[in-house]
Amino acid sequence: MTGLGGGAAAPGDYVYFKSVVPLHKISIGSKLWRYYDFGPKAVPPLICIPGIAGTADVYYKQIMSLSMKGYRVISIDVPQVWNHHEWIHSFEKFLDSMNIHHVHICGTSLGGFLAQIFAQYRPRRVKSLVLSNTFLETHKFAAAMPWSPLVSWTPSFLLKRYLLTGIRDGPHEPFIADSVDFVVGQVETLSREDLSSRLILNVNVASVGSLSLPDSFITIMDVST
């Protein structure tokens, strides 16, 4: 399906989602947070953190489905942070600004890694983790990207090309192809600074240490793409 200008048209359920769920933007210190918050406020929320190529919008189906079942879902864009400790402090300030003390976190890829890092250093705030296609350490990404010191000076179109390498490999079933097209469209909305910070987070050498959460509170999903 194509829209005006030949680009991919937005799915009908996404158009409906955008019509009923407002996008919020708040500045906390020097960080701009972009997020959706939907569902009853009386329960600890599920915070959704996208992967390196995703935005808050990629969880729109989960937001609609889970909110109808009584869950509060907050889907975020990872703001422009440049190391993992900055992420921890920034995310904690975001939660504090919304008067949220305890959270469940769902993270995909880089988002799952950031979720684990936060759970490691702020264990009292995290009630459970749902991790999809994520990882425990970044060494292999750093080794595969020897040009990472140049990321901050790399043009946006090259960063996008690097992020999208392999995503369109196929063929895919129609519903998977639609999801791929949706993610590709979201990447096009990211600024050079957004792309740079995510890539740097992905290659800054770090690893997840011991988590205090019991195994029964950690769900791991390995999703074929």
UniProtKB/TrEMBL annotation:
Localization in the cell: Cytoplasm
Domain AB hydrolase-1: 44-142
GO CC term (a single one): cytoplasm
SUPFAM superfamilies (alphabetical): alpha/beta-Hydrolases (SSF53474)
Pfam families: Abhydrolase_1
Superkingdom of the organism of origin: Eukaryota
InterPro entries: AB_hydrolase_1, AB_hydrolase_fold, Maspardin
Listed name of the protein: Maspardin
Naturally occurring in which organism (per UniProt): Aegilops tauschii subsp. strangulata
